[in-house]
Amino acid sequence: MALLALTFASAGCESEPPPKSTRISKHYDGRFADTINYESFGTTSELSCADGKSLNVAGSNNRLTVRGRCETVSVPGADNRITLDRVDKSLTVSGLNNSVIYRSGDPTVDDRGSGNNITDRR
Q1: What is the pTM of this model?
Q2: Are 20 and 40 within 8 A, CB to CB?
C-alpha cells in the first residue's frame, strides 16, 4: 500500500518548463481599494485597475495595457511600456527608461527617474 502511495506522489513530479517570472499581488492599503503589485520581467500582459485600484509596476522590460480607472500608479521598474486607460490622483515614475501613456484622468505627474517618457493622450 505504501509503495502505491509513493508511485502516485512521484507521478506529479514530472519535469515541466518553469513559468515566466510573473508575480502579481494585491493588498489593502487602508485608504482606497487594493493595490496591484506587478513584479514581472519580459512579459506582455493586460491588467485591470477596475474602478479605483492602485498599481505598482516594479518589474522590468514589460509591455502592459491597463484597463479601468487607477487611483494612483507608481513605476519604480525599468524599460517598461505601459498604456493606462485612466489615472485619477497621481502617476509617479521613479525607474529608468519607461514609456507611460495615460488616456484620461488628471493626475499629478512626477518623473523622478531618468530617460522616462510620460505622455498624456487625452
Answers
A1: 0.75
A2: yes
